[in-house]
Amino acid sequence: MALDAGASPDRPGSRLEEHPAALAAIHGRLEMLQLLGKRGLDIQDKRTNILASFSGKKLGDKTSFVHIIEKQAEFNPNGLEDRISWDTLLMMAAKSGHEPIVRFLLELSPQAPKAHPPVQWTMHASLSAAVSNGHLSVVELLLDRGACMETKDGNVTLLLRAIMTGNQDIVQLLLRRGRKPSNSDSVRMRLICVAAKADQLESVRCFLHAGALLHPEPNLPMAMDTLNNAVTYGSVPVIDLLLESFDYVQLATEPKHKTIVLCAATACGRTALVRDLLESHGCNLNGYDEDSYGCPPPLCLAVKYGHAEIVALLLAHGADPSPKFLPGPGKPMPPNLLWYAASRGYERIVVLLLAAGIDPNDSQPLEGSALEPYVKQSIRHDGIFRRLLDAGLDLGQHLRPDSTVANAVVRAGRPAMVRMMLHDLWSHVYKYTVVTDALVNGKEVFGLIYESPQWFPSTAVPPWLSWRAKENLNQYVCCSTAVQTHSMAALWTSRHYVERLALRHVVANMW
């Protein structure tokens, strides 16, 4: 074995077998680390190499451990300086969550953390690594051994890091150990606000139980910031919890505060509270730009979450049916409320918005390819798309330079939808494109167009067809009874054209 052959377990060198402690700490091989300790490994006062490139390896018994060392050494005999980073074994074990190794390493260090700076640094760095990776038992062990909870990684405290990574158990542990929930991070945002922004329901619950908004008295500014974050970033369970835990309605007196409470009640679907805010508290429905903190307007939230009853209530109280839709930070902006509701399948809301005067052809501020995904999703809902057609949807509206709304309908391959708009389909589409789309999406869709006198035999076949389109066309022309209504010349022309297209495709591929 490597140790018996004279390799030092302690002295850093250029060969891989001289750094076995890092592998043992990363992979939780306590017996290996104990063996190295017996052979003279000293880790009290200095940092040891991390073999980061082997963090994904799985180690078996001692023989396979040494075998990996010997094999990997063959690939880099001249040095490993470009593949290793310097850190402590304790931090590696804490990051990997190996509590027995952490305990073993702590027992090897007799100095108290406060009396020995290197050990103190190691404890703090290890605690931060354990918190970041959610290893509760390791965090608890390090705290018991004297690690300081005031440790910061840059400007990020342990409690904030636990919130950001969603480690609820560690948040509760730090609060039980005396960490105050009112501390703020480098951007002056309260921890409960960070938890609400990150949609960490249990963290918010912990802070509420610890009195983050009520101790020593109700803190309205912090409560409004927290609620605004929850509304802006779409954390409905957090909004519900905040509304139940804090008396926002009675304490909110300024217009901007009332607007945020109205937005929160709308997002949660609390119709009675929305009605009370509108009728008894004088909330401004359309003053969100100057009265709120930047959260979406109430009508947008009602449409976003599919609350049709609240949509009707807001429209009845004079809400602007065409507000600027703010779906949330980092999310794409839809064309308008109507297309958003149609794409989600909210038929009742579509009816309400059409009745309020929203034009289905008004896709501002987005046009073209940005509108196409919403059109495609709306086509899946026959009833909704029929209502859009009845409201005057322009089938010739461009989605791309060579594609219109009608092309998207044909491309979706829904015969019922094609049949519904067949009578005026021909006047809104590029005929070459729509025939290709119909062929690609199967015989049934193509058959509806083929049997229409506006299309065949007068409509020319596109100059290029995919193999799938050619096969569908050939199969339809040969097998469908619909060809009996056309002349044999048209049938011959169609079949002959398919053969010429196939030959052209073969010649093109030869080049």
Automatic annotation (TrEMBL):
Transmembrane segments: none
Top-rank lineage group of the source organism: Eukaryota
Keywords assigned: ANK repeat, Repeat
ANK repeat coordinates: 122-154, 298-320
Gene3D superfamilies in the record: Ankyrin repeat-containing domain
InterPro entries: Ankyrin_rpt, Ankyrin_rpt-contain_sf
Protein name: Uncharacterized protein
Species assigned in the record: Aspergillus terreus (strain NIH 2624 / FGSC A1156)
